[in-house]
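Why should sequence recovery work at all? Because a backbone constrains its sequence more than one might expect. Tight turns favour small or flexible residues, buried strands favour hydrophobic ones, and helices have their own preferences. The token representation captures these environments compactly. In the example below, the structure is given first.
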């Protein structure tokens, strides 16, 4: 398995129902090629996300009869009401690096300061919204895609949101970043060596991965692609939780997130 998220070709749908007798279709590398002589885009050929079957990817746009509805209360209005901006603090790092612990401490500090905040945490989300996803590269990509979308909604609602997911693949994190406006996505790299994390191993997962009981474990037999341009890098090998959380708060204060 490659370390990067699978690169999906750009998919396009016609949004038109074409009687079966007028079209022929076949699937090539997961992409549905539909020859639709009555639909004049792409010289009668439509590259389409399949609507059913094993070739359909969860991230594919399937619904077609949908229209974006502009809301009358916008993000600036909400920021003014709240007295602060929304942001998505995207914590990433190895299992055991300290993402959940630091994210929760930051959340607590934000709350004490009167900032509307919320934590989206990996294991918790996998109990509910993402309980149908595993740890294959594709499922990990879908897991992160959904978190990005949910995170964006939270930011639109004006909430300072922290996410605590390993999110090992750079492309997946960048895709989440791309959903948000400039400055709204703050990548927080919780940096800890594999040795430190294995030493902590609070869930006993590294032990199981070393024993071969868990396959595709990040850092053991699945890669972790460290951020190259994270807004914040936390040294979790040598600093304590409170100090690291303080660094995040200082960043937010200095960058003006605590004012509307
Ligand atoms: N900087 C640190 N100093 C001391 N202990 C830490 C530090 N960071 C994390 N820990 C401890 O390590 C353990 C793992 O931390 P945590 O659960 O936050 O990791 P995580 O990154 O969320 O891991 P996972 O991806 O498995 O959820 C916890 O017991 C936590 O208290
Ligand atoms: Mg965690």
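From this structural description, the recovered sequence reads:
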């Amino acid at each position: 398995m490659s370390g990067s998220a699978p690169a999906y070709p750009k998919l396009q749908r016609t949004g038109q129902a074409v009687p079966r007798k007028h079209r022929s279709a076949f699937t090539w590398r997961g992409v549905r090629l539909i020859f639709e002589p009555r639909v004049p885009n792409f010289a009668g050929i439509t590259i389409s996300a399949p609507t059913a079957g094993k070739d359909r990817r969860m991230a594919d746009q399937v619904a077609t009869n949908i229209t974006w509805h502009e809301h009358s209360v916008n993000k600036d209005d909400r920021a003014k009401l709240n007295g602060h901006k929304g942001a998505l603090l995207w914590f990433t790092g190895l299992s055991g690096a300290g993402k959940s612990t630091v994210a929760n401490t930051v959340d607590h500090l934000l709350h004490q300061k009167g900032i509307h905040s919320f934590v989206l945490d990996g294991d918790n989300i996998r109990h509910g919204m993402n309980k149908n996803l595993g740890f294959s590269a594709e499922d990990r990509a879908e897991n992160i895609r959904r978190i990005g979308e949910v995170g964006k909604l939270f930011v639109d609602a004006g909430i300072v949101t922290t996410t605590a997911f390993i999110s090992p693949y750079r492309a997946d994190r960048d895709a989440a970043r791309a959903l948000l406006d400039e400055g709204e996505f703050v990548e927080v790299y919780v940096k800890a060596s594999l040795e430190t994390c294995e030493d902590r191993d609070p869930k006993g997962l590294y032990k199981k991965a070393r024993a071969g009981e868990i396959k595709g474990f990040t850092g053991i037999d699945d890669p972790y692609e460290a951020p190259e341009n994270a807004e914040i890098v936390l040294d979790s090998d040598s600093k304590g939780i409170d100090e690291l959380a303080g660094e995040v708060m200082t960043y937010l204060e200095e960058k003006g997130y605590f004012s509307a």
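A few observations help interpret the result. The pocket of adenosine-5'-triphosphate (ligand 1) is lined by residues 93, 95-101, 122, 164, 166, 200, 202-203, 236, 239-241, 244 (CB under 6 Å).
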